[in-house]
Design a protein that fits this description.
This protein is an alpha/beta fold. Helix content is about 45%, strand content about 15%.
C-alpha cells in the first residue's frame, strides 16, 4: 500500500549560523525522506527558518540592523548550508513568508472560535529603564525548578519549560535592572484544557519514541499544563488577527510549530492535493518530527495541543525523532557562546557524502556524541574509500582493463541474492523506526560481506581458467551487489550512489527493491567514488 509520509524538520532560529549539532539533529529527516521516496511512498518533507522572536531582534541589535535583515540573511545562509550537505526538502520556507502568516492567522481564528484562545489581563514583567514590557528572551533569572540561571520560558540546564512569570530574581537582559510587574492584556492559549487528552495521546504513542522524548514529555505532563500567552508586546512577528491587539504580535512559540502545517499546506496546494483530507489520521499516513532534545515538549505537548485546538482532524505526531547533543570535547555546542563548527565550514572541508555518513553512523540517538575532524576523516578513509569505494573500483577497473568494460553474462549467486533481499527489509525497517545508526551498521555489513565474497572467489584467478563460467558468475554477482548498493546506501550516500547508477546505466531514481544490471552492458567511465583524505 502506498503510504503518505509527513516529515517535519525542526525550524532553526535565524539568529546565528547553523552548526554541526543542528546537522546531527536534522539529518535523520533527510535520510528517512529519501528512503520513503525510494519505496514509492508520497512524501512531504518540510521545514523552514524560524524568523521571528526575541533572539532575532537581539541579534539585529548586535549587528546594528533590523530584524527583517537578520531573518533574510540567515534564511539565505541556512538554505545554502542545507543544500551543501544534500538535504532534499520538498519545501523549505520561512515564517516571515505571507503564506505562513495568513494561514497562522486563520488557525488562530479557528482556535478562538473553538474556545481555546481567550483574553486576559495579567501582570507582566516591565523594564522601567527600557520603558517596555519584556519578551521571554529579554528576561534572565533563576529557574523555578533547578535554581540555575535561565532565560525566558525554558531552562537550558534542566530543560524545563515555564511561563516567564515563574522565573525568580528577574532582570532585564538589556540593561540589567530588576523588572517590575505591570498589568497588560494578552490572548492566552488554554493549554490546560488538553491535559487529559495529551496524557492519553502520550500513552498511545510513546512506545515508538526515543527515551529522551518519553522522559521529557512525562515530566512535562506530570508538572501540570499551564495556559500560555499566545501574544506578546513586540513589533517583529505575525500580526494578531483580533481587534485591540494591533500593538502585539503572535508569540513565536505557537506560530513556529504551526510552520509544519503551513509548509505542508503549500506542498499539498502545489500538488493539487486537499491538505485536510491528506492529513486526516489513518493507517495510510505516518508522520515524523525531527529535532533536538531541547525542543521535545514543543513537539510532544504544545504542537499536538494546537492541532487538537484547530479541530480539523489532522494526525497528531506519530514518530518523535529527538536527538541528543553534539559536543566539542566536553562542551555542548552553543550559538550564544560561539563554541561551534558551522555546517558551511564543514562543507568547505569535506564532501557531503562523507559528512552525511559520519553523522548518520554516529548520530546522537541515545547519548551525546563528541565531534572531531580526525574521526570524520578516519570514517571516510576506512569505510567510504577502503570498503565501499574499493569494492566498486576493483571490480569495475578489472573489467575495464581486461575486457574493455564489457560485462560477461553470468548467474548471480543465490545466497547473495537472498541476503540482498533481506537487506532491503532489514535496512528499511531500521530507517522507518528512526534507528539510523543500526541501518548504517547493516549497510556496512553488506559492504564487508561483499568484499569477503570477492576475496574468497578470487576472480583474478578464475579469469585464468579455460572455463570462464566461475569468473562470469562472480562478476555478475559482484555487479549485482554494486547495483543494489546504489539503492541501499542512497538515503545516506546520494552522490556516490548516483555515480554508480550512471556507470551501470540504471534508472536515475533509486528504488527499494532488488535490481540487476541489463544484459550486454558495456561499462562507462569508472569514477573514483571517494578520494582518500591525507
Amino acid at each position: 500500500m502506498k503510504r503518505k509520509v509527513l516529515i517535519g524538520g525542526a525550524w532553526p532560529y535565524a539568529n546565528y549560523s547553523l552548526h554541526v549539532g543542528h546537522l546531527a539533529a536534522l539529518l535523520p529527516g533527510d535520510v528517512i525522506a529519501r528512503y520513503f521516496r525510494q519505496n514509492g511512498d508520497e512524501v512531504m518533507y518540510v521545514s523552514g527558518t524560524d524568523s521571528h522572536g526575541t533572539p532575532i531582534t537581539e541579534r539585529a541589535k548586535k549587528e546594528g540592523t533590523n530584524p527583517s535583515e537578520i531573518a533574510h540573511k540567515y534564511h539565505k545562509e541556512f538554505v545554502e548550508a542545507f543544500n551543501a550537505v544534500g538535504f532534499s526538502y520538498d519545501f523549505y520556507t520561512a515564517t516571515y513568508e505571507p503564506y505562513h502568516e495568513s494561514h497562522v492567522q486563520q488557525m488562530l481564528v479557528e482556535m478562538k472560535n473553538n474556545g481555546y484562545l481567550y483574553e486576559k489581563e495579567k501582570q507582566q514583567d516591565y523594564c522601567e529603564t527600557c520603558g517596555k514590557f519584556l519578551a521571554d528572551r529579554e528576561i534572565t533569572g533563576l529557574c523555578p525548578v533547578c535554581g540555575k540561571s535561565a532565560k525566558g520560558d525554558q531552562c537550558d540546564a534542566c530543560l524545563t519549560s515555564f511561563d516567564p512569570s515563574d522565573l525568580k530574581d528577574k532582570h532585564c537582559i538589556t540593561c540589567g535592572n530588576s523588572t517590575v510587574q505591570r498589568p497588560n492584556h494578552e490572548i492566552v492559549f488554554a493549554l490546560s484544557k488538553f491535559q487529559s487528552k495529551l496524557e492519553k495521546y502520550y500513552e498511545e504513542n510513546h512506545k515508538v519514541w526515543r527515551t529522551n522524548a518519553i522522559n521529557e514529555t512525562k515530566k512535562y505532563l506530570e508538572q501540570g499544563l499551564p495556559d500560555r500567552d499566545a501574544t506578546r508586546s513586540l513589533d517583529w512577528g505575525i500580526e494578531v488577527p483580533f481587534e485591540g491587539y494591533e500593538d502585539k504580535r503572535v508569540y513565536v512559540w505557537i506560530e513556529a510549530v504551526m510552520g509544519y502545517l503551513t509548509a505542508a499546506m503549500k506542498v499539498a496546494e502545489e500538488r493539487g492535493e486537499d491538505f485536510d483530507a491528506w492529513m486526516q489520521d489513518g493507517e495510510d499516513l505516518i508522520s515524523y518530527y525531527i529535532h533536538g532534545k531541547d525542543n521535545i515538549p514543543f513537539h510532544t505537548v504544545i504542537y499536538p495541543a494546537i492541532i487538537m485546538a484547530v479541530g480539523r482532524g489532522w494526525q497528531l505526531p506519530k514518530r518523535i525523532v529527538s536527538s541528543e547533543y553534539v559536543k566539542l570535547g566536553e562542551d555542548k555546542m552553543s550559538k550564544s557562546r560561539g563554541n561551534l563548527v558551522t555546517i558551511l565550514e564543514l562543507a568547505d572541508q569535506f564532501e557531503s557524502d562523507s559528512i552525511r555518513f559520519f553523522f548518520t553512523a554516529n548520530n546522537p540517538e541515545r547519548r551525546d556524541i563528541s565531534y572531531s575532524e580526525e574521526e570524520l576523516i578516519a570514517a571516510h578513509n576506512k569505510f567510504l574509500c577502503g570498503a565501499f569505494g574499493n569494492f566498486v573500483n576493483r571490480n569495475v577497473s578489472f573489467l575495464k582493463k581486461k575486457f574493455k568494460g564489457v560485462v560477461p553474462a553470468g548467474a548471480v549467486d543465490a545466497e547473495i541474492a537472498a541476503q540482498t533481499e533481506k537487506m532491503y527489509a532489514d535496512i528499511g525497517g531500521k530507517i522507518e523506526a528512526g534507528e539510523l545508526r543500526a541501518a548504517v551498521e547493516l549497510m556496512l555489513q553488506y559492504i564487508q560481506d561483499a568484499n569477503k565474497y570477492y576475496d574468497a572467489q578470487a576472480p583474478w584467478t578464475q579469469v585464468k581458467a579455460e572455463d570462464q563460467t566461475d569468473f562470469n558468475n562472480t562478476t555478475a554477482t559482484c555487479l549485482y551487489i554494486i547495483a543494489n548498493m546504489s539503492n541501499l546506501l542512497a538515503p545516506v550516500l546520494p552522490n556516490g550512489c548516483a555515480k554508480i547508477r550512471t556507470m551501470l546505466e540504471l534508472d536515475e531514481t533509486p528504488s527499494w527493491t532488488p535490481i540487476n544490471i541489463k544484459d550486454g552492458l558495456v561499462l562507462g567511465d569508472c569514477p573514483i567514488l571517494y578520494t582518500r583524505i591525507q
